[in-house]
Write a structure and sequence with these properties.
Blueprint lengths: L1 H19 L21 H16 L6 H16 L4 H9 L5 H10 L6 H11 L2 H4 L5 H14 L7 H6 L14 H14 L11 H20 L3 H11 L8 H14 L34 H25 L19 E2 L2 E2 L1
Antiparallel strand pairs: 1-2
Helix pairs in contact: 1-3, 1-13, 1-14, 2-3, 2-5, 2-14, 4-5, 4-6, 5-8, 8-10, 10-12, 11-12, 12-14
């Protein structure tokens, strides 16, 4: 319970920071102009929608995390004019993927716009849509967006996954920052952002179960908090819940990195022994742009972790075991499952 309380406190503080800084997600009046940088406008808003949608879906109605996340999703939807802005984007750039991906985040929470979906259905039925050249990871994300919106998938998920870095099960020592972010998003797309862990292929789950601990350790040792938290989220996306050792080892580190306002920086020097959540000497200022994504990812990873911890507790309760069976391959710190080496 102490570990669960810690993870929940970290998530609550992170969402509080996001609420207190929601003005950073407000779209400018010229958001549709071609000179406006979508990386500083629509991208943050889409990330807010996607990650808070998942937090809401993976927490219970009586949980404050659920309430706050739901309010942030509503705020983001209002910023799009209840989807009207996304329809304008789709009309302006019919073969761009980001309007689909942003809209799919809202669709996953039941927020719909009929005009967007009519036009999206027409575009997605063209040969041009099916044969648009994309990086493998982007295609995987687009397929998950089509599934969320309710459109026919233009190709199968399995071959799309196998063309990604993660799907190839590469040598673990080839992991680096770019491949790290590629693998986390491949895992998120396959499992619909952690809400469908059973969709993770058995061999990919075993591979991640073996190597995630080492990769997370390397990220945290190097102060890569944003990527480290994405990897923690991946650990909670696997068919089996993350082991207690993973929670006990790394969530206290994130708690130490998080400041008193709830912000978590993308990168920075690791905390020294005895440091708490207050500001530290020599620490870079925590601005919206260098904190918003890592703070959102912290809340996202925490919500997924809490959901899996609660599921494990139910499965271990004899009164609930038959109602909540979990016979997934084990994910453990030794990199073994089903009693054999991976």
């Amino acid at each position: 319970m102490a570990q669960r309380d810690l993870v929940h406190d970290v998530a609550g503080a992170a969402l509080t920071w996001v609420c207190d800084n929601r003005s950073g997600f407000v779209l400018p009046a010229d958001v549709l102009e071609p000179y406006t940088d979508v990386n500083h406008t629509l991208k943050p808003l889409g990330e807010l929608a996607q990650l808070c949608t998942t937090v809401r879906r993976r927490t219970g109605p009586g949980d404050r995390l659920h309430t706050v996340a739901a309010s942030l999703v509503r705020f983001a939807w209002e910023q799009t004019g209840a989807g009207e802005l996304l329809l304008d984007l789709l009309r302006a750039e019919p073969f761009a993927t980001y309007p689909f991906e942003i809209y799919a985040a809202f669709a996953g929470d039941g927020l719909r716009h009929q005009g967007f979906e009519r036009l999206a259905g027409t575009i997605a039925a063209t040969r041009g849509w099916a044969f648009t050249e994309q990086h493998a990871n982007r295609r995987l994300g687009l397929l998950n967006s089509e599934r969320r919106i309710g459109l026919p998938l233009h190709t199968d998920m399995e071959p799309a996954l196998r063309r990604t870095w993660l799907g190839g099960l590469p040598e673990p020592w080839t992991f680096e920052r770019a491949s790290g972010y590629a693998l986390t998003h491949a895992a998120f797309h396959v499992t619909d952002w952690g809400t469908a862990p059973h969709r993770m292929p058995h061999d990919v789950a075993g591979y991640l179960g073996s190597w995630l601990p080492a990769w997370i350790d390397g990220c945290f040792e190097g102060g890569q908090w944003d990527l480290g938290c994405e990897l923690l989220a991946v650990g909670a996306c696997l068919p089996a819940p993350p082991p207690a050792a993973l929670v006990e080892t790394w969530w206290p580190v994130i708690a130490a990195v998080q400041d008193s306002a709830g912000a978590v920086p993308e990168t920075g020097p690791p905390p020294q022994a005895g440091e708490g959540r207050d500001g530290r000497a020599g620490e870079a200022p925590r601005t919206f742009l260098n904190c918003y994504h890592s703070t959102l990812v912290t809340a996202f990873a925490a919500a997924l972790t809490l959901a899996r911890m609660d599921s494990t507790a139910r499965n271990q309760d004899p009164d609930n075991r038959n109602q909540h069976p979990d016979r997934s391959p084990a994910f453990d710190m030794a990199g073994r499952r089903d009693g054999g080496a991976v």
